[in-house]
Design brief:
By secondary structure, the chain is α+β, with helices and mostly antiparallel strands. The protein contains 12 helices and 13 strands. Helix content is about 35%, strand content about 20%.
């Protein structure tokens, strides 16, 4: 295996220590993904240098010109405080003509905007919840075709930002109040989509042209308060004590309707290609009792921590974490960019 010079591009303040000794579980969570990936890169024999995405492109260019990396391992989820700016950093890497891991700029643009994603998928007759967009500084007016209950969230932010049990609204007054919360507290436009009852499934996909899907993964709620909807709130994702108290975990999906694994894998590949994704991605789905599947979101460059859904589902498919990281590197090296054609 060729030993590469890998420039690790990490969020500001996320360069991890060399070992975990002396850090609490909460402290480790802030840079767990970066730690896992850097440890894997080192274990694979690659040479690694880190650069923080601080809202300034100059350090990235300086590192590329000085060190001449074979590859940039992109771990950014935002830039300059804006989620939508990560595609600009990837576009800048293409201007510098340096290979990178993960999704291309066009795929990031199409997938980051939840409404645009749903419009594209609807055009291709892929089932998504009905939805409405509520821009900032405009009056909240619900279309008559948009039926309650609705789930209100940020149009562009990820990682369940701004999502709580209060995000499920059942009348226009609650809708207006929650949209205002997203506008004021999250600082983005809001999207409200019809709440789909069912099982929450995640599908991991790896590849550029030739795609591999991983076993379906499921978010499990064992001890949620009675009447609470099974949605992935920010608290469920990041509050470790709450996760333990409510028995929240993820695992390989069991007892699925016959043939649904293959149908969902085929659907996932269609979505991946329709949205022009590359590298790796995770799709968030809802499976109803009648077997119908609704696509909730497409997440390019999902969390790559060794103990998170994407890596665990890859492991279930036979890919150890080190092999997964190497595959992602290989995909970045072989991705056909406009300047390379």
């Amino acid at each position: 295996m060729r030993r590469l010079r890998v420039l690790a591009l990490v969020p500001e303040g996320s360069i991890p220590p060399t070992d975990l000794e002396g850090f609490s579980e909460k402290e480790i969570a802030r840079w767990k993904m970066e730690y896992d990936i850097l440890a894997a890169l080192g274990g694979l024999g690659h040479f690694v240098e880190c650069v923080e995405g601080r809202g300034d492109l100059a350090p990235i260019r300086e590192a590329v010109e000085r060190w001449k990396p074979h590859m940039v391992f992109n771990m950014l989820e935002e830039f300059h405080g804006y989620v939508a700016f990560d595609q600009n950093v990837v576009g800048y890497l293409e201007l510098l003509r340096v290979p990178y891991t993960g999704c291309n700029p066009r795929g990031l643009v199409l997938a980051r905007d939840k409404a645009l994603t749903k419009k594209i998928l609807s055009y291709h007759r892929i089932r998504v919840p009905r939805f409405g967009v509520f821009p900032r500084r405009r009056r909240v007016r619900r279309s008559a075709r948009l039926r309650f209950p609705l789930l209100v969230k940020s149009l562009t932010e990820e990682a369940s930002t701004g999502i709580s049990q209060a995000s499920i609204v059942r009348d226009d007054a609650q809708l207006a109040k929650r949209v205002e919360f997203i506008h004021d507290q999250v600082g983005s436009d809001a999207i409200a989509e019809e709440y789909i009852e069912g099982r929450e499934l995640y599908l991991g996909i790896l590849g550029n042209r030739r795609l591999q899907t991983f076993p379906l993964w499921e978010l499990i709620f064992e001890n949620l308060p009675e009447g609470a909807p099974n949605i992935a709130t920010a608290r469920i994702k990041f509050d470790l004590e709450y996760q333990k108290r409510c028995g929240i975990t993820t695992r390989a999906a069991r007892g699925l309707p016959e043939g649904s694994d293959g149908r969902i894998a085929h659907l996932g590949k269609r979505i991946y290609r329709v949205l022009d994704l590359s590298g790796y991605a995770r799709l968030d789905l809802r499976l109803q009792e009648d077997g119908q599947v609704f696509v909730l979101e497409a997440n390019p460059n999902p969390d790559l921590s060794a103990d998170e859904d994407f890596a665990l589902s890859a492991e279930a498919a036979g890919l150890t974490f080190d092999r997964l990281v190497q595959r992602i590197l290989n995909l970045g090296l072989t991705y056909s960019k406009n300047w390379a054609q």
